[in-house]
Amino acid sequence: MEWVGVTLIKKVGCHVWTHRLMIPPKMRTFPCSDNYRMLSSYKPKNIKDSYRILKLQEGCSIDDIRNPFRNLAKQYHPDSGSVTADSATFMQIEEAYRTVLTDLSKKLKSREDEEEEEEDKFKSKTPQHRHYLSFEGVGFGTPSQRERQYMQFRVDRAADRVLEYRKQKLESQYTTNDIMIAKDVRQSKKVKITQAIERLVEDLIQESMAKGDFDNLSGKGKPLQKFSDYLHIDPMTHNLNRILIDNGYQPEWILLQKEIRETIEQLRRGILASRKKLGEPMTLCRQKQWDHICEQFIEDIKKLNKRINDFNLIVPILSRQMVHFSADKEIARAQKTYRTLMEEMRTSDKDPKENEQENVKLFRFKTTFFKLINLMLR
Question: Is there a smaller number of Cβ atoms within 10 Å at the N or the C end of the chain?
Answer without folding.
Answer: C
